[in-house]
Structures are given as structure tokens and as C-alpha cells.
């Protein structure tokens, strides 16, 4: 009996591709951000000795940084399989890794119950989150970009990027609701665990969507032309070192900006500036709306050229860093203005970023190369950003946090000078 045409070949629809790339990153970033929020609001109190509150906060932020150290490992691991067996199956494994790690955090006993084992287990779970996200981001970008028409790669590539503001809105929103509905005693007794446990539902949704799609046509065509690269990471470092370094530099300002606007701002705002926890979460959530709104705008502009958009926004971030501290210290209206401006700029730089970085590498090592560049930038630009900013603010004053941001924008500007315009490239015939 002959197979029907539908049975022979099933093609992903744009709706399937965009939803699958968006839902996975939204789940991953939700998981990632609930940890970031808890690292400021919960973990210093429950998972570390209570002898010195400031030291507990710094210790908690250090566990936050562990995930960024794990990201390159996840990038190498999942990138290896993503470039050899395909994007789809690898994305499913990455989502499972992230989901299990997050769920387990919600079940961990506190320092009061098991002593030093508690922060060690917390750090281990955070490491698992980093492994998962290291494999998720690059695969989700490729799922979108490698399914896109040639003149819509930046627009398709922005859908996984929208997962970041959506994940943050979900995580910030749920912590805000818990802060409003529960007393402090209830929140620290059990309320903080609910977002981590509830993430299991979102992970199951993401898995269902990911399992319903087929492999990207660009990767499938590449497999017909040649065998997969034996060790993708070795090929990346041997033949594409410049692209990795340039990709890391291009991503720097994006990472520093975001984690200053979220983790550092929440920590400093609710301690040194004495904002109410719930009120400050509202300010952040308003800012994140602008983050989400500017992503499509920048992706649309980037279809006419990636580098011009990234050059302009890097310059604007550098200028923003010079007066960021003045806004932050100017009361609620100033803090809100800082959040709106900072996170709007974040959307402009983040929208085309995935497309820009992925287009630097050929199909045979694109998963590994783009994931490594992004995750290494996470180590240098994000993992220690809240820690460095807190140290700078305490040691030299809040304006130096802004100067730190300006310096990161200069690094990204130099990285953009190292790459060429890729909007006219054909991903299927990129020189290997």
C-alpha cells in the first residue's frame, strides 16, 4: 500500500514554528526568572546563615551566577546533539532538564532544616537550570530562523526573544500576587515554593508543542549534502573563533543591561532605597511591558540591516548608563522612568540579537556556535552583573553602576565592528 503525500512529508506551518519557539523560551525564562526573583527576596533568608543579611544576599547572588557558568556546558552538550541529530529532539531534552531542575527547587528543605546541605542542593539545581537554558536558547532561535523565509529571518527570530519578557511577566506577576495575597509568614513558609512547583504545568505544555513539530528544512537539507560534523565544538573553536568572540562582545551590553534592570535593581531598590517589595515589582513589570513592545519594532527594523540597529542601540545604552543612577535615586517616578527607558532599550537590542548571532555560523555548527557565544556572554555580562553592581554601589556609589553599563555598551559596539552584515545571506548555502 502506498503512503499518502501527507504521510511522506509533513511541513511545519508558520504558526506551529513560531508558537513552538515562543512557548519553549517563555517556559525556560519563567523558570530562570523565578529563581532570580527568589534569589533576592527568599533565598538569602531561607538558604543561608542569618548572621549577616548583606553576606546572605551576596551568597544568594553567587548561586544565581552558577547557572551562567553552567550555560556553556549546556551549549556544548546540547549543541553537539543539535548539530548532529537535529534541533527538535535536542530542544525537548533541554526543556526537560530545565523543568526538572526548577521543580526540585520548589521541594528543597531550608538551611534551618538541613544546614549547609540546603545551599549546596540549591546550587546543584541552579546548575541544572543553566545546563538546560544553555541548550534551549540556541535551539529555539534556530527553530525559528531556519524555518523562516529569507526576508523574514529577523521577524521569525524575535519570537523566541519574546519568551524573555513573557517569562518575566509571568514570574514577576506570580510573585506580586503571592506578596499581596499571603502574609510574610505564609510567603516564606510555603508561598515562594508555588511558582517553582507550578512550572511543571508549563513544561508539559512546552513539551507537547515541541513534540508536534518536524525538523527544520535548513538542517534537513544540510544532512542530505554532507554528514554531520563529528565534534561540533572542536570545529567551532578551530574555524570560527573570531565569530565566537565577536558574538560574545555583541551580546555584552544586552546581558549587563537586563540584569541591572531586574536582579540588581530589585535588590538595591528594596534594601538601600527602601522600596516596598510589591510596589517595586509593579515598577519592574511596567518596564517589562516596554521590553516586550520594542522587540517586534527592532526586529522589523533589522530586516533592513542588522548592524545599523545594533550600533544605534549600543550607543543609546552607553548614554543611558551615564544618568541611570540619577533616575534610580529620584523617587518612584524616577525609578519607573529608569525601568521604562532601560527595558525599552533592552527590547531594541534583544529583538534582533538571536538572528544576528545565529547568522554568524554555518548550518553544520550553528547550534553549537550561537549557543556558545550567547552563553559565554552570559558568564561575562550577566552572571556577576548583580554582584559587581552591588559591590560598585557600596564601594564607590550608584553612578558607578551606570558607568559599568556604559563600558559594556562600548564592548558591544566594538564587537559589531568585527562582524559583517548578514541580512542578505542564504543560511542554506553559508560557506562551511
- What is the CATH topology assignment? Growth Hormone, Chain: A
Report the CATH superfamily.
Answer: MFS general substrate transporter like domains
CATH class: Mainly Alpha
Count of domains? 1
Structural class: mainly alpha
Summarize the structure.
Helices cover 80% and strands 0% of the residues. The chain has 432 residues and is mostly helical.
Tell me what you see in this structure.
GO terms for molecular function: transmembrane transporter activity. It comes from Telmatobacter sp. DSM 110680. This is MFS transporter. Its main location: membrane. With 432 residues, the chain is mainly α. The chain has one domain: Growth Hormone, Chain: A (Up-down Bundle), CATH 1.20.1250. It contains 20 helices and no strands. The N terminus is likely disordered.
Annotation keywords:
432 residues; Growth Hormone, Chain: A; globular; mainly alpha; disordered N terminus; 0% strand; 20 helices
Q: What topology emerges from the helices and strands here?
A:
Elements: H1 5-8, H2 14-41, H3 43-46, H4 53-84, H5 87-105, H6 111-114, H7 117-145, H8 153-181, H9 184-191, H10 193-211, H11 217-225, H12 232-239, H13 241-270, H14 277-302, H15 306-328, H16 331-350, H17 353-358, H18 366-383, H19 385-395, H20 399-417
Helix pairs in contact: 2-4, 2-5, 2-7, 2-8, 2-10, 2-13, 4-5, 4-7, 4-18, 5-7, 5-10, 7-8, 7-18, 8-14, 13-14, 13-15, 13-16, 13-18, 13-19, 13-20, 14-16, 15-16, 15-20, 19-20
Amino acid at each position: 500500500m502506498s503512503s499518502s503525500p501527507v504521510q511522506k512529508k509533513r511541513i511545519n506551518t508558520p504558526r506551529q514554528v513560531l508558537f513552538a519557539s515562543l512557548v519553549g523560551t517563555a517556559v525556560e525564562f519563567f523558570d530562570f526568572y523565578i529563581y532570580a526573583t527568589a534569589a533576592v527576596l527568599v533565598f538569602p533568608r531561607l538558604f543561608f546563615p542569618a548572621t549577616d543579611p548583606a553576606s546572605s544576599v551576596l551568597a544568594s547572588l553567587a548561586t544565581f551566577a552558577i547557572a551562567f557558568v553552567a550555560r556553556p556546558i549546556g551549549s556544548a552538550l546540547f549543541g553537539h546533539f543539535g548539530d548532529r541529530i537535529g534541533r527538535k529532539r535536542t530542544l525537548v531534552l533541554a526543556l526537560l532538564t530545565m523543568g526538572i531542575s526548577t521543580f526540585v527547587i520548589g521541594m528543597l528543605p531550608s538551611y534551618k532544616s538541613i544546614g549547609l546541605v540546603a545551599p549546596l542542593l540549591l546550587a546543584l539545581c541552579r546548575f541544572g537550570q543553566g545546563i538546560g537554558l544553555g541548550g534551549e536558547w540556541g535551539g529555539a532561535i534556530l527553530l525559528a530562523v531556519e524555518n523562516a523565509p529569507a526576508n523574514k529571518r529577523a521577524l521569525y527570530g524575535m519570537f523566541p526573544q519574546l519568551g524573555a519578557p513573557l517569562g518575566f511577566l509571568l514570574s514577576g506577576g506570580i510573585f506580586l500576587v503571592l506578596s499581596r495575597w499571603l502574609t510574610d509568614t505564609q510567603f516564606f513558609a510555603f508561598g515562594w515554593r508555588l511558582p517553582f512547583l507550578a512550572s511543571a504545568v508549563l513544561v508539559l505544555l512546552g513539551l507537547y508543542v515541541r513534540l508536534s513539530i518536524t525538523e527544520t528544512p535548513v538542517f534537513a537539507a544540510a544532512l542530505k549534502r554532507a554528514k554531520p560534523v563529528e565534534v561540533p565544538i572542536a570545529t567551532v573553536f578551530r574555524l570560527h573563533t573570531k565569530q565566537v568572540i565577536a558574538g560574545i562582545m555583541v551580546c555584552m551590553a544586552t546581558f549587563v543591561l537586563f540584569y541591572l534592570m531586574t536582579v540588581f535593581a530589585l535588590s538595591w531598590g528594596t534594601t538601600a532605597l527602601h522600596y516596598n517589595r510589591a510596589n517595586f515589582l509593579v515598577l519592574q513589570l511596567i518596564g517589562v511591558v516596554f521590553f516586550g513592545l520594542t522587540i517586534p519594532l527592532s526586529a522589523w527594523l533589522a530586516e533592513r540591516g542588522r548592524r545599523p540597529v545594533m550600533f544605534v542601540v549600543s550607543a543609546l545604552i552607553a548614554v543611558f548608563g551615564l544618568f541611570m543612577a540619577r533616575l534610580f535615586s529620584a523617587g518612584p517616578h524616577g525609578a519607573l522612568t529608569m525601568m521604562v527607558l532601560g527595558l525599552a532599550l533592552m527590547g531594541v537590542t534583544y529583538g534582533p540579537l538571536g538572528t544576528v548571532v545565529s547568522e554568524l555560523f554555518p548550518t553544520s555548527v550553528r547550534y553549537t556556535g550561537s549557543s556558545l557565544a550567547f552563553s559565554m556572554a552570559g558568564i561575562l555580562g550577566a552572571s556577576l552583573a548583580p554582584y559587581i553592581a552591588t559591590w560598585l554601589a557600596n564601594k564607590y556609589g550608584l553612578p558607578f553602576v551606570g558607568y559599568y553599563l556604559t563600558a559594556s555598551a562600548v564592548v558591544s559596539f566594538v564587537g559589531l565592528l568585527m562582524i559583517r552584515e548578514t541580512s542578505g545571506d542564504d543560511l542554506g548555502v553559508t560557506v562551511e
